[in-house]
Design a protein that fits this description.
By secondary structure, this protein is of the alpha+beta class. A seven-stranded antiparallel β-sheet has the order 11-12-23-14-19-20-21, covered by helices on one side. It has a six-stranded antiparallel β-sheet with strand order 13-22-15-16-17-18, with no helix packed on it. Strands 6-5-7 form a three-stranded antiparallel β-sheet.
Amino acid sequence: MASANTSGSEENFSCSICLDVFNSPVSTPCGHNFCKTCITKHWDEQVIFKCPLCNKAFKRRPDLRINTLVSELAAQFQTSKRVKYQVCVKPGEVPCDVCTGTQLKAVKSCLVCFISYCQTHLEPHQRFPVLKKHRLVEPMDRLGDMMCKKHDRLLELFCQTEQVCVCQFCTETDHKSHPVVPLNQEYEVKMAQLGKIEAEVQQMIQERLNNIQEIKDTVNRSKADADREIADGVHILTALKRSIKKYLDDVNRMVKEKLKSTEKQAEDLIKELEQEIEDLTNRSSEVKRLSHTEDHLHFLQAFRSLKDPPPTRDWTTVDVHPPSYVGTLRRSLDQLEETLNMEMKKLRDAELKRVQQYEVDVTLDPDTAHPRLILSEDGKQVHDGGVRKELPDNPKRLPKNICVLTRQSFSSGRFYFEVQVKDKTAWYIGVVRESIDRKDLIIVTPETGYWTLFSYKDRLVFNDNPDVRLPLRAELQKVGVFVDYDEGLVSFYDVEARVHIYSATGCSFTEPLYPLLCPWSWRYGGNNSAPLIISPVNQTD
């Protein structure tokens, strides 16, 4: 019968005075039930004692006794009501350790009992004074982990030497000579470190976002270069219609392949960066989640996994190298040189203007100059003085070759400079790698670190083994030198004629490159006293 009653509505078990479930219910002579406290207080304020429900009056104040049956039924209903409104445990939540059958979600964990309780089974801890002294915390899984496996005592200290949580007995045995502190003290230290870790993670994320933006910007610039190159090709080659359609297609294909290669490289790098950002974001989430942990033990045990960030690439050395389109159209149109002279002139002019955009300001370094060379005060001119000066020994100097290097070097990207060679009968100009042999006479070739153009009387060659003989250019007055470090390209131009002279392709640059000027002997080939002059670029020529 009790079971049947407990399935009724809350009205059957509620006091009509306080409207809550009965607490120590008593019955009046007329058969109605009230909480003992409620009816007592009600009658304390009355002169005539009446039933609050049926209004029946009593000659004297009734003697009230606890209605045991109603009290038991009310208690059962209260319990079933609490169970009804509690939440069953879900995946990832802490279950009640006391529940049998269907487990309810724990609302607190006791660090004295080492048990997690749902609302119903927590009630004794809220009612009995001795249990009220127990330390209750937010629900925690694996409460057994808070006990020392060796001594079966609470882990309440932290060993700073071995960075582990220990109990009091541990400090008297294995960790006797180690400095230990309370968990809460180490918690504060690690929490401060956690803030630093979070800042570092966020900085790494921002750096990689910046890397992505830089890569995208590079690709956009590469697209603009490709669009411009294709536009030039269309403008020039379509003028020749079907006779050069094949060459137009070749140009478009080569440009697009290079662009596709650049985009593929950028796409792969972006994917890698995004993966690192995802890993770092996950680490950030883990750090944030851990920063909200109130339990010192769980925090310190989980903190150990945060010491080392996820492995990442050093992005300061990674870059997308946009392809160089310099000379693409020229190489195609060279095959039709006789019929394309006018078009080639337009193309070469555009090409020179394009490379001139990469002009750099370089000055000559006197510490590298041969003892016979005379440099101008501004470091822009050099000529052979004919007399070997006594100079202090310097590891940078070139005592055998009558040459001089610039102060500036280049380890990436593109650069361009121009040198006036007017009135010279012999000279060579170009770039050299930093590690060239500076003290002995050597054969000047790319293998020995020289990429240079050499002129002597009626000879114009690119210094190689063997030399590359080039068509002599009448009245060559100014030479332009263009280098695309990442593409492995060195090109030479006749600036006044707006004509390409020669390009060394497929070069492998692995160290800084220095521009080099060699005015040769003042007697070489006759009167060779005129200086080599580093000239500013004039794109209106």
